[in-house]
Design goal:
By secondary structure, the protein is mainly alpha-helical. Helices cover 61% and strands 4% of the residues. It has a two-stranded antiparallel ribbon. The chain has a two-stranded antiparallel ribbon with strand order 3-4. Strand 1 and strand 2 form a beta hairpin. The chain starts with a strand and ends with a helix.
């Protein structure tokens, strides 16, 4: 996505008249230009494409050419001024209200182009279901392009999404949804998007990226279900989709296990997203459930089934993408490699175990899946059960990884927590008292931002998402520091008024 640049174009009107300066955003020709206008009951003027001005003049210019360019420049300047001039307002009309700020006190029935753009972006996140967001951490991207039509070109092996990446995405989506449902937070974000160009540019880039990620994850989930149905021909599609929901729960609880994000401690555990190792499933008690049901006789038998199923599926994926994910050595199979399972491999293991026991009916399999889900949920402590899963996962992601990166993240996280605590302290000074009532009657745009910070600091999902943004995106971290300093100045002014 091309990044617009802020250009200050000085257009001289000629003679003794003053120069007119027009601040515009340089945007690609394929995208319409939106200039922030104050909202009124009048319709916004349309923006017509304008010819490009020459960057510099040549040394050999004739008088007629200079006169022509001067007239053209004057005409263009007048056109710009006419298109962007505000319509005449009747100052006695109460509908127009206070116009001390060009974006302040809008009409209820209209939105500026920038506000409309931002609200549409936020509304796009509300279309994502809880299952969509959960899939960010429970889905493997091995099946992104599965299945492909026979006449289509062979797809490339997609970039592997790590467990930590999936967690960060999930926290962001959940936080944006929570912010969209908080009117004060949404208004605060809207003002920031309208008034601060760096935030607007970064917001557009992040939105486009997150939209593409969600499209891929939805396709990956569909591909996983199709592949699992192929590996379990006797089970109908509805049963496979039901099992996929159980896998979501199992994956969440597996990620919450201690050391689940530390690949250094366990060579059999990679950081690929959407997969669980056999040892994680053992920690959740799934192996005991299978043995108690008589589907396998021993742990060694289950391990052999998992290893063989995982290796076969690995080779099938490589053949599908015509690419080698890693070198295969017989010693790898013997030493404990290929003990990780995607949803498709997990279903293949269950299918092979159940088909060995001919008397095991479909209803018994459904009952087994329900039992597995209940057993995995029992591993959470009582306090953890009351918290949102994405928030718990975010805490694990911050404190995981190498010691260097972990210390760096913790440093920024501590600074962010200090900001949140400060906003909560300020909130007690201004809300719920006479000063707060006065602010409600005469709000300014900066006060709207401050109020949004107060309400956002109360919402755990919003706080978790903003923390991820603050830690992972350096430009927005700098913007966050500047906003906090600005809000410090605002609250000092309010306290002294």
């Amino acid at each position: 996505m091309a990044i617009p640049l802020l250009a200050l174009s000085s257009l001289c009107l000629g003679g003794g008249e003053a120069a007119a300066f027009v601040a515009v955003e340089r945007t690609p020709p394929s995208r319409p230009m939106h200039l922030p206008l104050r909202r009124t009951n009048c319709n916004y003027p349309s923006y017509r494409p304008r010819p490009t001005l020459p960057l510099c003049a040549t040394t050999s210019r004739s008088a007629s050419a200079e006169q022509y360019d001067s007239g053209t420049t004057r005409a263009m300047a007048l056109q710009l001024m006419a298109e962007n001039a505000m319509p005449q307002l009747d100052m006695d009309d109460p509908l127009h209200g206070d116009i001390s700020h060009p974006l302040g006190h809008y009409d209820d029935d209209h939105q500026t182009p920038l506000e409309s753009e931002f609200v549409n972006m936020m509304n796009a996140f509300l279309t994502y279901s809880e299952r969509d967001i959960q899939s960010l951490t429970t889905t493997s991207n091995r099946y992104l392009h599965y299945p492909q039509a026979e006449n289509e070109k062979k797809p490339k092996l997609p970039h592997q999404r790590s467990k930590e990446e999936g967690i960060r995405y999930r926290v962001l989506y959940a936080g944006v949804q929570a912010a969209s449902l908080e009117p004060e937070v949404l208004r605060s974000f809207t003002v920031l998007f309208e008034d601060y160009l760096p935030i607007r540019l970064a917001g557009r880039r992040i939105f486009k990226h997150l939209r593409n990620v969600m499209e891929e994850v939805r396709e990956e989930r569909r591909g996983e279900i199709v592949r699992a149905a192929e590996l379990c021909p006797r089970w109908d599609q509805g049963f496979v989709e039901c099992a996929r929901d159980v896998w979501d729960t199992v994956m969440d609880e597996g990620l919450l296990l201690e050391h689940s994000l530390d690949s250094v401690l366990d060579e059999e555990q990679s950081q690929e997203g959407g997969v669980l190792s056999l040892h994680q499933l053992m920690d959740l008690g799934i192996d005991k459930s299978l043995i108690e049901e008589g589907l396998v006789d021993s742990m060694e038998e289950l391990e052999n089934i998992v290893r063989q199923s995982a290796l076969e599926e690995e080779l099938q994926v490589e053949e599908y993408y015509n690419s080698k994910r890693r070198k295969h050595h017989p010693q790898d199979v013997q030493d404990g490699q290929y003990l990780e399972m995607t949803f498709a491999v997990f279903m293949k293991v269950l299918y092979q175990c159940s088909t060995r026991k001919q008397s095991y009916s479909g209803e018994e399999i459904r009952s087994l899946l329900q039992s597995l889900e209940e057993n995995t949920l029992e591993h959470r402590t009582h306090s953890a059960k009351e918290q949102e899963t994405s928030i718990l996962l975010a805490e694990k992601a911050i404190h995981s990884g190498s010691s260097t990166s972990c210390k760096k993240r913790e440093k920024f996280s501590d600074r962010f927590d200090e900001y949140v605590s400060t906003f909560k302290l300020w909130e007690g000074r201004f809300l719920g008292n006479s000063k707060g009532d006065e602010l409600e009657m005469h709000p300014t745009r900066r006060v709207e931002i401050l109020k949004g910070c107060f309400f956002g600091a109360r919402n755990p999902q919003v706080v978790a998402a903003l923390r991820i943004v603050y830690l992972d995106y350096r430009p927005l971290r700098l913007a966050g520091d500047l906003i906090f300093k600005l809000m410090s100045t605002v609250q000092r002014g309010l306290a002294g008024s």
